[in-house]
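go over this chain:
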Amino acid sequence: MESHLRRRLIGFALIASLCLVQACKNLGPTGGHRAEFTAGTITSLSPATIVAGGPPFNLTVFGSILFPDATVLLWNGVQQIPPVIAVHSAGAATQATYLIDAGLIANPGNISLELIVPNAPPDERPSNTLTLTITPRTTTACALFGLYDFLFTGFDTNPLGIPQYSKNYGGAMVVGAFGVDASGNLSGELDWTDYPFGVIGGGLAFPITGTCANSAIPNQGTLTLKFVADGPSPTGAFTFTFVLQQGGSGPPRGRLVKFSDMTSGFGTIAGTGAFVATTSASVLNGDYAFGLVGADADAAGVLGGQIGAAGRFTFSNGNLSAGVADINDGGTVTANVPVSGAMSGPPPDLYSRVTVGLTVGGQQAVLTIYVNSSGSGFAIGDISTQTGHNAFVGFISPQVNAGAYNDGSLNAPLVFSTWGAPAPLYTGSSYTASSDTTLGLASGFNSGAGTFNLQFDQVSGGVANLNQSATATYSVASNGRAVVSYSLGGKTLDYVFYLDGSNDGFILGESSNAAEFGFFQPQAPGPFTTATINGTFASATFLPMTPTSPNLATEITLNNGTLSATTPSGALTGTYTVAASGRGTVSVNLPVLGSKNLVLYVIGPTSVAVMGSDNTMSDAITFMHF
């Protein structure tokens, strides 16, 4: 009884205190006093209208007698949204800002907004109500509109003044999310790793702003991403050229390229990347396959080559289980090791950013994932090894039919591509970096014998080995992990595949310090001709392996054996042929992929993979998509 009375007295005291500042009224029917207070008064909203389908945005509520520490914004009578910023005057706030989820503005309509005090007594009075108008989308200032996840890899100059000769020195990797509104304004967040520093910012995302603008060429333009000055944020801005795919299945997507035009606290950065449209509140849940690539260190923690990893895991209720992975750390292979972990750090935010702490075969790793609406995602993080922190970026994708894979899961032609970077060579006065790229076709799968046929082209260490063939052996475990081997030139080469579906997944090389990382995907039924791939394709290089790797993002038109495009180096022209298998050869006038001679493999009528095929130390692979 005494404790109950004490709680009542405390409650009356709190109400009385609120009355002093919140204009309590005498509302008793017989002249008695009943304390009633208001949650605030709203006078205006900024913005008062918003375009449907846009990204998350900041809504500012202006008014008087606002108390954001005690009140929340009630969205359409249902969802409660806490403030992120409040501006005070004489104790009370005159304005408060609320971060609005993109999912709340997906469709046109009128939204009622008012302020309330959660769990308030019955006589608490909410604020007045104002209306936010969500208008249908008509035209927008930029070809990009809405919310996107993105991944970027490249190289920067070292802020310590050390020249960049290897992937270790200057490997800059970025993963994040950005939104573009109807006026071309950009906002979002990103995570950044930079060798030799590892994850920048202590594992927290950097907020970004910027702009999006179209170019004179349809489906192309520029993105400028600026860091919001906040704590250890880098200075400067990224300026990307983007090219947007116009066809194909799934959400809108495209490619990014960044030339050496940014000077910041982390140097001048150049490289390429990819982006894909998404929605807010995408959830990490279910079975996944993954592939990761990054920079490793040698025993002295200085000059190494590439680190690659591939694997699979199940994620449920914040916990990671049934995980397994293979790692090639500059030639040191750790195969088929267990992976476990749990969600760490803050809960998923409006950009579907999730951080997971991992144990990978006894080594500790942190993985931050931006999950997109297709269930896939871009990942970034680092893993602690005996040589230090090795930074990486990569991809996760839903693994269908988990636990039910077998040799019959590889049963149709597939196109594969890999990228590698061996440790740089010291030539007496400097270090020379080189790439290791492979593009090819696997076909003729015989699940009974566990064999298939290979046709592929490779440029390794400056030497092109073209149109090679071999017979490979393979075995697929129920969790989707497949071991693959073939012999060539008296040497046995080993790879591991992790399937995310039939004839689709990630590749990791396990026979060299180049640590080849890559993808494989099913090829459409043939036979193929030059006319099969007629059309205009969004095209861009991907995953540059050396500081001098060519970077390109543009539209390329293929027309019955002739090729044309507009590039920063000038007009690109050329000719090509396509064999019935889908392998083709290309001759062009400019070495935009590091070579004037190229090879291509048809994935299907709307998708082609292309690789330079001259003797070059810095080769490139580009994907062309409608």
Notes: Confidence is low (pLDDT under 50) at residues 1-36, 159-169. Residues 1-37 form one domain. The radius of gyration is 28 Å. The helical segments are 2-22.
